[in-house]
Amino acid sequence: MKGTVGELGEFGLIRELTSRLTTTPAVRVGPGDDAAVVAAPDRRVVASTDILLEGRHFRRDWSTAYDVGRKAAAQNLADIAAMGAVPTALLLGLVVPSELPVAWPTELMDGLRDECQVAGASVVGGDVVRGDSIMVSITALGDLRNQEPVTRAGAQPGDLVAVTGWLGWSAAGYAVLARGFRSPRAFVEAHRRPEPPYHAGPAAAGLGATAMCDVSDGLIADLGHIAEASKVRIDIRSGAIDIPSQMNDIGQAVGVDPMQWVLTGGEDHAIVATFPPDVKLPARWKVIGEVLNPSALPQVTVDGAPWTKKGGWDHFGGDIES
């Protein structure tokens, strides 16, 4: 669609965005009313929200609007799955400059819609506001389907630590983009459009997961959240984590140990969980460590020792990846 957001106007933009949406049986009242109505058979609603700022969380010269939409939806829907819930709906808050071409928000909506379809959810409403820069705010909802939520606080000494999904791919893709390259494409695309294993979250809950988290801030950082909430120590076995040959090649090219990306790179939105030691895990889960009694050591160690290199993500401290 040609023209700018300002030329189309607020209500014209809303009509254009909502016309691109699909729905699911969980949506009883969709966009167009004062509020949406989404079925909650479990009588409990899991909710998560996140904000993406242009220049802080995405760059238009690196990612298309469609990429940003896929990523914005993925990182919120992954939070729902990491609670052991099934994603049902997503709400969008969008701030855009009036001079922005209409094609940008419409392509963003296409990305949101398509990622929701992967997770079995749908966009059910939101709001648009004029501003000086682009901001995308997402609220995701989910249903527990009669299971208890899996929080960060249930890990017990003796539990296994297992992960499913990619680790370090987004960080490696960021390193490639930061140096002006666009390949290897698989890693660049992992940064632009993460692929969370949505169905693994509810499945892990059914298997008896004691604690769970999606890997958004980095494996050490996110396992640190579990360790702190559960008052335990977690030890990661680095030898249990496979590093693809292409990631090794990227690391050699840019002078970074790829294990740094695996342990501290965020935004892959893999799911990491702790399980009782007698649980038989499906092949998609890789055991990478164990839960131990708390000690004087840091709450997360690697091969029994503190990880001395910096890494991870802190929204107020910034990207502290070394």
Question: What are the defining features of this structure?
Answer:
disordered C terminus; 14 strands; six-stranded mixed beta sheet; 322 residues
Question: What can you tell me about this protein's structure?
Answer:
The chain has about 325 residues and is an alpha+beta fold. It has ten helices and 14 strands. The strands form four sheets. It has a six-stranded mixed β-sheet with strand order 8-10-7-11-9-12, sandwiched between helices. The chain has a four-stranded mixed β-sheet with strand order 3-6-4-5. The protein has a two-stranded antiparallel ribbon with strand order 1-2. Helix 3 runs parallel beside helix 4 and helix 5 packs parallel to helix 9. The C terminus is likely disordered.
Sequence-ordered SSE layout with sheet pairings:
Blueprint: H1 5-8, H2 10-18, E1 27-29, E2 37-38, E3 45-53, H3 65-81, E4 86-96, H4 103-119, E5 122-130, E6 135-143, E7 160-164, H5 169-178, H6 185-192, H7 200-207, E8 211-214, H8 219-230, E9 233-236, H9 245-254, H10 258-264, E10 271-275, E11 286-292, E12 300-302, E13 313-314, E14 318-319
Parallel strand pairs: 4-5, 9-12
Antiparallel strand pairs: 1-2, 3-6, 4-6, 7-10, 7-11, 8-10, 9-11, 13-14
Helix pairs in contact: 3-4, 5-6, 5-9
